[in-house]
Specification:
The complex is a heterodimer. By secondary structure, chain A is α+β, with helices and mostly antiparallel strands. Chain A has helices spanning 14-25, 33-40, 44-56, 69-72, 84-101; strands at residues 6-8, 31-32, 60-64, 78-82. The N and C termini of chain B lie far apart (124 Å).
Chain lengths: 116, 159
């Protein structure tokens, strides 16, 4: 039996990049839905399909908040953590995406009135 | 004497109004908290029944409860946040279901007998490789070490 830390290749969209950037700020940190909404500015209806896509592709792992619901007075929430392989892949792909959107260097302007 | 009586009645009346006002605002607050819950329940009814427990009960409901009961929750803020959270889910429940179904089948495919049809080594130094799963899904893996053990097989043994 072989266990591999694998991630499915994904086309990173700008919205997905916003979500991945939050996970990459601290890869070991579990992230919750409402906190991700606040950090990315995304609505729940856009965020949850994105999280499902990332989870299905092996980029995120789902977990449960470690609380006693009776003490906290509320049920334990679901959180997501980025996998090691996904963090590596995300860094590479975000750098490539950033390069893709980087504006070209300004061309050298000739001073007005000059002849040459 | 009548003046004192009127003043006492005024104080009692004022206190009574404060108590009633508190009770009314508590009642309104409690009822308003039901609005996002009702919207979320309605969204959950449109979910695939197989997903209802994992998605609604394990994810949406605890998150909404956190929004409504969290430390930062002020009556108006929590109502706005909670309602926005529930309405956005309701508006996109079809898309969420579609993505979740696809995600669950992908996870199941990787956990069960997944047929890896090709392995392409991208960088031998880091062990980065790309696996083709079935005939369409591509996965990138890191830190791959391949050990080949020939147990048995047809053909001539190596000389």
């Amino acid at each position: 039996m072989m266990y591999i830390d694998a991630v499915q290749d994904l086309d990173i969209t700008p919205k997905m990049a916003r979500v991945l950037k939050v996970f990459l700020e601290d890869p070991g940190q579990p992230r919750y839905g409402f906190a991700l909404m606040k950090l990315t500015g995304m609505a729940s209806g856009s965020l949850y399909p994105m999280l499902a896509k990332l989870e299905g592709a092996g980029w995120l792992i789902r977990g449960r908040e470690d609380i006693d619901p009776r003490v906290a007075g509320r049920p334990a929430r679901t959180h997501y953590t980025i996998t090691g392989a996904a963090a590596s892949a995300a860094r590479v792909q975000l750098a490539a995406l950033s390069e893709q959107y980087r504006p070209p260097a300004p061309s050298r302007l000739r001073p007005q009135g000059s002849t040459a | 004497m009548t003046g004192y009586l009127l003043a006492a009645l005024g104080v009692l009346g004022g206190l009574g109004m404060i108590v009633i006002g508190d009770m009314v605002s508590e009642e309104v607050r409690d009822r308003l908290d039901h609005l996002p819950h009702a919207i979320l329940r309605f969204a959950a009814k449109r979910l695939d029944p197989a997903l209802r427990v994992t998605v609604y009960e394990d994810e949406w409901l605890p998150e909404l409860t956190y929004i409504l009961k969290g430390d930062e929750a002020r009556p108006i803020t929590r109502l706005i946040h909670g309602t926005r959270y529930a309405v956005s889910i309701l508006a996109n429940v079809g898309r969420i279901t579609q993505h979740l179904n696809r995600a669950h089948s992908q996870i199941a495919a990787m956990q069960n007998n997944t047929l890896i049809t090709a392995i392409e080594i991208i960088d031998p130094a880091t062990g980065e490789a790309r696996l083709t799963v079935g005939n369409r899904s591509h996965w990138t893996v890191h830190d791959v070490r391949v050990n080949v053990h020939v147990v048995s097989g047809p053909g001539k043994p190596p000389s």
